[in-house]
Amino acid sequence: MNLLETFRLAFSNIKASKVRTFLTMLGIIIGVTAVIVIEGLGNGMEIYMRDQFAVLGTNTISVNLIGRGTTRKATVDDMYEIAWGSQYLQNVSPTVNMSGGIKVGSERHRSTSVQGVSEDYMYMKSLGITLGRGLRYMDIEDRKTVCIVGAYVNKTYYNGGAVGDTVKIGTTNFKIVGVAEQQDDDEDLAAGGNDDFVYVPYSTAARLSHVGTISSYTFTMIDENSSDQAVDDIKAGLYKIYRDDNAYLVISMVQLLDIMTTMLNVMIKVLAIIAGISLVVGGVGIMNIMLVSVTERTKEIGIRKALGAKESIILKQFVIEAAITSALGGVVGIIMGFLGCRLATALVGQLTEVDMSVIPSWISVLRAFGISAGIGVLFGYLPAKKAADLNPIDALRYE
Amino acid sequence: MAALIEFRDVCKYYEMGDTVVKAVDHVSMQINRNEFVAIVGQSGSGKSTCMNIIGCLDVPTAGEYLLDGREVSGMKRDELAAVRNELLGFIFQQYNLLPKLTLQENVEVPLMYAGVKGKARHDRAMEVLRSVGLEDYIKHRPNELSGGQQQRVSIARALVNHPKVILADEPTGALDSRTGREVLGILQQLHKEGNTVVLITHDNSIAVQAERIIRLEDGHVVFDGRADDPDAMKTGDQLRAEGKLKAGASEPQKEPEEAAAEAEKEPEKGKEAMQ
After folding, report:
1. Which of B55, B92, B112 sits opposite A1 (nearest CB)?
2. Alpha carbon of A12: minimum distance to chain B alpha carbons (Å)
3. Which residue among A157, A213, B80, B202 is least packed, with the fewest CB closer than 10 Å?
4. Cβ <8 Å between A306 and B96
5. How far apart are the first and last CA of chain A?
6. In chain B, where are the structural domains located?
7. Which CATH number is B33-58+82-249's, of 1.20.140.10, 1.10.8.50, 3.40.30.120, 3.40.50.300?
8. Which residues contact A269 (CB under 8 A, 6 or more apart)?
9. E strands of chain A, at which residues?
10. pLDDT of the residue at B246
11. Nearest-CA residue of chain B relative to A297?
12. What is the pLDDT of residues B127-155, one digit of tens each?
């Protein structure tokens, strides 16, 4: 009796009791579905995060000066010196955040971010100008009240004719001199996202917000892969000024992304393990049903043994039956998992307006299938052994 | 030529708490090829134990059992399974067909375990089903058939592997007298065709259909001879009164001490058999 026949036999036994088989598989189905959807969510979150960081620029390092209990504070010139003195750093721009959003005409738009930056900032972000001009050195030097607006601001609040118009930030009117190119993929710019901003000269922003010393800077690196050296150069430069490494905070976006990815992965793993517990529960369910099945089929086992079935054949028959039941559950679970991922993508889109796709990974699918088949073999062995050990005389007499 | 079935002082003891039940006690017999033998006895006579040992479903506690020249008593369970598959064809009182399989699949089961594949298996199954007149029902399941038809399927299944011995355990027990006669007719026909048939029954009227009768009482052979011998239908007490009881079976029971000592001799074998 070869393996193919054993499989055929197992299939016909499974077919003979469909409802029971389905109920037996349920634990495995739920477990596999859960694992796939959770890993898909993790996958989607990671991709979404990477996309977001890519817009922010993964080659940037942000520096915050806290400057507690120090005699001297780092100036904008100090920062430029650090940037130009390092072979790993490309450029630097102060970043001054202004709260309160903007006012166009009499309408206030609080969601728009207003940032004071240098004339190089857009170049550092590889962000082009589609209309008008960018910020210039003289704008910074003279603390001019001019600004660049994002594509969303231009389209939504000015119908595309922002250049030459004015926008009110705080109590000051700014002249719009340029429009930045669109960053988000969103064709019709329905949501603001990364295109809902206004850039003003940092010197103007600092004056209007009454900031004496600018404490936030963005550096760009020449090469993303040397972010550690770049961070070290910035820290070394700042240490010379402050003599205290608690006075500043240097975070590279690459590091931040790594930290967040690691955290996310840990979270997803924990969730997946919790979901995996239901796979074990499903395995116990299979064992339970197989034990019932062995008792029910005692007579059949006796007859088969009388007709010459060896113990190994009976053992194989029951183990394979359990493994097939479990693996079938795994396959159904994988299909459900894929559907679940689609559903989750739609749900996330609906609930949070975040365009994130939940993508099942093939490795997790293969693993889910392997684990479910393995569980079948593992938990099917005990009932199968019981069947194989039955004494043919007793089994034949069993009613 | 050596006998096909040979019992040499075969014993089968069961331990029931403190007492030892001697189901079969020092039975010796020989059954040759192409014999039609009925093993007769009331319940408790040891005939079922005898049938289990002949059928390699069980091994004796003591003594030797040779089947077709092979020593079976010391075999492992998987070896016994192989011997059952190769040398024996079983016909049971309750037919013991597998309810979920079709007739053809039922008949193919022994061939499957023998490693016969594909067309050869299919053809052989068809051949035996035709020989019992059920070729039109091959796709039916056992519960769609009458008792007599089911017993014919089980006969077909017993024959499918060309066994050396056909072992029929009360084959007419579940049938009415007319279909019972039919089944006995098939067994007689098989015997005429050169098969060795061993019939186990409690019913004298069925036993006389065989050529030879072996009568068991309390685990002993009390008669072994031709079915038309006038002594064949007599009980052990009657034979003892007539002084015709064979030696070995004539002593009613051994002394208790002696029996206990004998049971102790083979404690391991006894335990193994109990499992």
Report:
1. B112
2. 9
3. A213
4. yes
5. 27
6. 33-58+82-249
7. 3.40.50.300
8. none
9. 60-65, 89-94, 96-98, 102-104, 107-109, 113-117, 129-132, 146-149, 166-169, 172-180, 197-201, 216-221, 248-252
10. 56
11. B98
12. 999 999 999 999 999 999 999 999 999 99
Do the chains contact at B114 and A308, CB–CB below 8 Å? yes
Tokens of B115: 């490693």
CA atoms B232, B237, B243, B249: torsion sign? positive
Rg (CA), chain A: 33
- H or E element, residue A30: helix A18-56
Q: Cα–Cα distance between A396 and A394 in angstroms, integer?
A: 5
Q: Express each pLDDT in B61-110 by its tens digit.
A: 999 999 999 999 889 999 999 999 999 999 999 899 999 899 999 999 99
Measured in whole angstroms, how far is the alpha carbon of residue B208 from the centre of its chain? 16
Tokens describing residue B272:
């193994």
Contacts of B161 in chain A (CB under 8 A): 308
Q: Name the token pair of B5.
A: 């079935």
Q: Is A73 exposed, middle or buried (0-12, 13-18, 19+ CB in 10 A)?
A: middle
CB B226 within 8 A of CB B211: yes
Which residues on chain B place their C-beta less than 8 Å from a C-beta of chain A? 52, 55, 57-58, 77-78, 81-82, 84-86, 90, 92, 96-98, 100, 109-110, 112-115, 117, 157, 161, 275
Neighbours of A376 (CB within 10 A): 30
Identify whether the C-beta of residue A202 lies closer than 8 Å to the C-beta of residue A216.
Answer: no
Q: Are A387 and A291 in contact (CB under 8 A)?
A: no
The residue written with tokens 């479910």 in the block is A372
Q: In chain A, what are the domain boundaries?
A: 3-53+260-397, 67-246
- Residue B243, both tokens: 């002084």
- Given a contact cutoff of 8 angstroms between Cβ atoms, the answer to whether A33 and A337 are in contact is yes
Cβ-Cβ pairs closer than 8 A, A with B, add up to 58
Model pTM score? 0.70
Predicted confidence band of residue A57 (pLDDT cuts 50, 70, 90):
confident
Indicate the residue type of A75.
T
For residue B112, the distance in angstroms to the closest alpha carbon of chain A comes to 5
Helices (H), chain B: 47-54, 77-87, 103-114, 118-131, 147-159, 177-192, 204-207, 236-241, 256-265, 267-274
| Cβ within 8 Å, pair A307-B84 | yes
Q: What is the mean pLDDT of residues A277-305?
A: 88
Q: Residue A299's closest chain B neighbor by CA?
A: B96
Reported as a pLDDT band with limits 50, 70 and 90, residue B270 is: very low
Each residue of A342-396: pLDDT tens digit?
Answer: 998 888 888 877 777 888 888 888 888 888 888 888 889 999 999 999 989 888 8
- ipTM score: 0.86
Q: In the beta sheet, which residues pair with residue A107? A: A104
Residues of A in contact with B77 (CB under 8 A): 311
Angle between helices A18-56 and A311-352 (to 10 degrees): 40
